[in-house]
Design goal:
heterodimer; A: mainly alpha; B: MetI-like fold; Rossmann fold; five-stranded antiparallel sheet; about 10% strand
């Protein structure tokens, strides 16, 4: 029965034969090497972005047509007072001196002085920041907590062209939900739960339940988009060869979906998801204004209207850094989930 | 390409409008544009009429949505605001497109170094949310409608620039652009004549969606008090005024809120449905990638009974009788596997050969219970180690299949999960089916990797699949199958994706495992040589059936089916004259959906006669009990130049000669 094998069986099989033995050591150091390169590259990009951000916020005050101090103090302010204030702000120095002073100030945590209240801007930011950060972080968490299980479930239910009706219902409702801008949703929620039902506070940060409506307004749209992206990715990933391998290992279905398909679906979804989550940082501006939330968002708007430029400058900077932090975090999570993403960027 | 695009756009756009979603979106869109056009002409007076006796009144017969703090009608103001809102949004979008086009085409026009700088700047700007950019520019351009238009326009530019850049890069790589440039056509001319016309469609679609975004952003800025200022009013401004009176007259905020929502939805849905209809990718949305596979599931079909294979004394490892696989198709179910019967004894190596589409891989997947809905598997018998795979609890089946059956797939590059370490992927099997601890399972994985001759197995187990070469991955895949104690390995084209030198290593490994543990092997391959070398017995499949079952040793000289003989003849050997064209099996394989009556091979067979075309031959013993053939002319000599020519016009005469 085994006549055909004799020739093959006699071929000596050397354990470490082939070209694989050599590159073994190099391959492992290659991974470390990739991590180092990834870290360096990502850090460089972050630094360049921060530099662009800082420079842009510095230039903002100089790009405004006319004299910003005159604008802030109004046309009736005496000329001497305006000149004195310009002097105090260093606006009469050469541009590069001002730039240097600005950078030095930032390095020491000095964000300048408010034109209106004369308070250090750093104090204003420090006082307002926690309310905004807690709001954004909760909304961020809520969006991901809802979107991932929803997207995965929908992906499993609609894979291989199944559940056409489920898919249509889900896609349509997620498109509609994603179109509703956060501040309009906020107004609607205030009307229903505050005005009509009177269940929840609609203004200010007056306790844990006050978070509910602002977080909801912020999270619904991004959650809808994320869930949609994750579903599409799941549908694609579930067709992959390695999912078939997982099934061939006879793992229970939840393990196949969550252990093998989800990490791969997430790596693709996160690339877009990072932008969406970054945008949530800026969305707090509008939502804070709907709910009179005592954060940076209400401060920046009143400061723009009052032409209190140093405060605006600082808050724009804070938002920008927030977005960059979210983006970087997403990139790192991506690299941890899928080590190939580090190499792909090369 | 350019000509094709311009010839049929009206037809394609009309198709978009025909879908329910597209029709609804188009209607809504037309309504919004109509409102923007006529509302100020019709209702400006009513919207501006001050009614001091009716300040901040709720909805009434006179004022459907109530009045504002000057007693002006909210509903009329919301309708009249359409023109300013839509107008500002479109202006801002136009600014974004123009800037986006300039920035996006700059890399092509400016040359490499400057172009890179522009691209890098755009990349940095894109990372920041549009609203943040809009706020930044709103500060610079000042509070008011003009400043807000500029701010939203400029804020929208980076993402458009990125889109244009991607589209331009795609088109610029095409042949006709390269040809035009080679012919000395200037860059600007190439851009205007060849590139832009070809990216106009996705640009328009994205501009529509962008306009919806601009509309909502504008409402946002006006709502913050940074956009339109009194006495002018857009939807955002009305909302800004209305929210202060939310407790007194909620309609003052809800009416403009709803109109802006509907208008935004109109732009967005219209853009999305056009994108879907035209197959254009949009910003921030992934195109749906779906595998084909209609959802309708057809009923099982009536099929011919096939003679049952003679049993062996020893219980076979795998016993398959009358196996059918069907998938729903556009015109009823398609059956790529049509009544396959075979058995594999302990330690036996069975090869399955046939061209692609012959059903050999699906047979393997069906036997291993890996065919998913909407595919259907049916069999008169399907037993692994005596256990019925058609019935029994899922749990028991998982346990049996997980430990006794090992699968090796064709492409080792895609068959491992790229996000998980190799050791963990192997260990998972032992943790699942043998209840091992994480530590023990990992130890077993390292041991198995060493068993399949992976050097430095412990270190390798901590690596990711992309750090393994193709041959190593395939050996690791075999190692994964050895985590349990398999009685059968099903290897589906295990060497096809590998280099010739590595192929032999993998085959040697399979061979060694068989001999060491008396493991049976089903080796699926289109390569007759590989199968002949490794296997004891060969099943030849054609159009979803086994057409011949013979000992591998007989393959070269003892094959009886003309198809088997054509396959063997097509293999080049040392004596093949390389000056001559290589032999092939003439004609094309039968597609699963269009199996003819009679013998499926008749159209390509040099021996075929009328009976072959009318009656389907069944698999039956030929000369010895172990040799089975499904052919009316089994073993008859084939005309000398037969295999290289299409079927002779009248092959009947040639069949006269008896088989030896």
């Amino acid at each position: 029965m085994t006549t055909a094998n004799s020739a093959v069986a006699s071929t000596p099989a050397t354990p470490t034969s082939g070209p694989q033995a050599g590159p073994g050591g190099r391959l492992s150091s290659a991974l470390t090497h990739h991590w180092v390169r990834f870290a360096v590259r990502r850090l460089a990009r972050l630094l360049v972005s921060v530099w662009v951000l800082v420079t842009a916020s510095f230039l903002m005050i100089h790009l405004i047509p006319g004299d910003p101090v005159r604008g802030a103090m109004g046309p009736t302010a005496p000329a001497e007072l305006v000149a004195a204030r310009r002097e105090a702000l260093g606006l009469d120095d050469p541009l590069w001196v001002q730039y240097w002073d600005y950078l030095r100030g930032l390095a020491t945590g000095d964000l300048g002085t408010s034109l209106i209240s004369q308070l250090p801007v750093a104090d204003v930011v420090a006082q307002r920041l926690p309310a905004t950060v807690s709001l954004a972080a909760l909304a961020f968490l809520a969006a991901v907590t809802v979107a991932v299980p929803l997207g995965v479930t929908m992906g499993v239910l609609t894979r291989r062209g199944r559940g056409r009706r489920t898919e249509l219902a889900f896609t349509t409702s997620s498109v509609v939900l994603a179109t509703v801008p956060d501040f309009l949703l906020g107004v609607g929620l205030v009307y229903v739960f505050g005005v009509q039902l009177g269940w929840l506070p609609v203004a200010g940060n007056v306790g844990p339940e006050a978070y509910l409506l602002p977080v909801l307004s912020l999270a619904v749209g991004p959650a809808a988009i994320l869930a949609r992206i994750i579903r599409v990715e799941m549908v694609t990933v579930l067709e992959a060869d390695y999912v078939r391998t997982a099934r061939a290992k006879r793992l229970p279905a939840p393990r196949v979906y969550l252990g093998h398909a989800l990490p791969n679906a997430l790596t693709a979804a996160l690339t877009l998801g990072g932008l969406i989550l970054g945008a949530m940082v800026a969305s707090t501006v509008l939502v804070e204004n709907v709910f009179a939330w005592p954060g940076l968002g209400s401060t920046i708007v009143s400061s723009i209207l009052n032409k209190d430029y140093p405060v605006v400058q600082a808050i724009v900077l804070v938002y920008g850094v927030g977005v960059l932090l979210v983006n970087t975090t997403v990139d790192v999570v991506l690299a941890l989930l899928d080590p190939r993403s580090m190499i792909r960027e090369d | 390409m350019a000509a094709q695009r311009t010839r049929q756009p009206t037809r394609r756009w009309r198709q978009v409008v025909r879908t329910p979603l597209g029709a609804g979106a188009s209607l809504l869109m037309a309504l919004v544009l109509l409102l923007a056009l006529v509302a100020p002409m019709l209702w400006t007076d009513q919207a501006d009429a001050v009614d001091t006796g009716n300040i901040l009144a709720g909805p009434s017969a006179e004022h459907w949505a109530g009045t504002d703090n000057l007693g002006r009608d909210i509903l009329f103001r919301s309708l009249v605001a359409a023109r300013l809102s839509v107008g500002l949004a479109l202006t801002a979008t136009a600014i974004a497109i123009v800037l986006g086009l300039l920035l996006g085409t700059a890399p092509m026009l400016l040359g490499r170094r400057l172009g890179r700088l522009v691209t890098a700047s755009v990349d940095i700007a894109v990372a920041f949310p549009g609203l943040l950019l809009a706020l930044f520019f709103a500060v610079i351009f000042g509070v008011g409608a003009r400043g807000a238009v500029l701010a939203i326009g400029i804020a929208g530019a980076p993402s458009f620039a990125r889109l244009v850049h991607t589209l331009v890069a795609g088109v610029a790589a095409r042949d006709y652009v390269a040809a035009a440039r080679a012919a000395g056509v200037g860059r600007v001319r190439v851009l205007l004549r060849h590139v832009l016309p070809n990216i106009s469609e996705p640009l328009i679609v994205n501009a529509t969606i962008g306009a919806g975004g601009a509309l909502l952003s504008f409402a946002g800025l006006s709502f913050l008090g940074l956009g339109v200022q009194a006495p002018q009013y857009d939807w955002g401004r009305l909302l800004f005024d209305g929210i202060g009176a939310l407790y007194v007259n909620p309609a003052a905020a809800l009416a403009p809120g709803l109109t802006v929502l509907l208008a935004g939805l109109a732009f967005n849905l219209f853009g999305e449905s056009v994108a879907k209809g035209l197959g254009v990718a949009t910003l921030g949305h992934l195109p749906e990638r779906r595998s084909a596979g209609p959802a309708t599931s057809g009923p099982p079909t009536i099929r011919a009974e096939e003679p049952v294979v003679a049993g062996d004394d020893e219980a076979p490892v795998l016993d398959v009788r009358d196996l059918w696989v069907s998938f729903p198709g556009a015109d009823g179910p398609v059956q790529p596997v049509r009544g396959v019967s075979f058995a594999v004894r302990r330690g036996e190596a069975v090869g399955v050969v046939g061209e692609s589409g012959s059903g050999k891989s699906l047979t393997a997947l069906a036997v291993s219970r890996l065919i998913e809905e909407p595919g259907r598997v049916e069999a008169a018998r399907l037993q692994l180690l005596g256990a019925d795979l058609r019935t029994g609890s899922e749990r028991a089946q998982r346990q049996l299949l997980g430990t006794s059956l090992a699968m090796v797939f064709q492409d080792p590059m895609t068959s491992f999960n790229p996000t998980r370490r190799m050791g963990g992927q192997l260990a998972e099997v032992a943790r699942q089916h043998q209840g091992m601890t994480r530590r023990d399972a990992f130890g077993r994985a390292v041991d198995r990797l060493a068993a399949v001759r992976i050097p430095e197995a412990r270190r390798r187990a901590g690596q990711y699949p992309h750090e393994f070469s193709g041959g190593m991955r395939q050996r690791a895949m075999i190692g994964m199958g050895l985590m349990g104690s398999p009685a059968l390995i099903i290897a589906d084209e295990p060497t096809t994706a590998l280099d010739v030198t590595v192929q032999q290593q993998v085959l040697d490994l399979l061979q060694a495992i068989r001999e060491a543990d008396d493991v049976a092997l089903v080796l699926i391959s289109h390569d007759v040589t590989v199968v002949g070398e490794v296997c004891d017995r060969v099943l030849v499949m054609y159009a979803g059936r086994i057409v011949e079952d013979l000992a591998a040793a007989d393959l070269a000289t003892g094959a009886a089916h003309p198809y088997t003989r054509a396959l063997v003849a097509a293999v080049p050997d040392m004596e093949t004259d390389l000056e001559q064209p290589l032999a092939v099996v003439p004609g094309r394989p039968v597609a699963p959906g269009e199996v003819p009556a009679g013998c499926a091979y008749a159209a390509r067979c040099p021996l075929a006669d009328d009976r072959c075309r009318a009656e389907d031959p069944q698999l039956a013993s030929f000369e010895t009990p172990d040799h089975r053939v499904a052919c009316w002319h089994a073993g008859e000599p084939i005309p000398v130049d037969g295999p290289r020519e299409p079927a002779p016009v009248d092959p009947v005469e040639l069949v006269e000669v008896d088989a030896p």
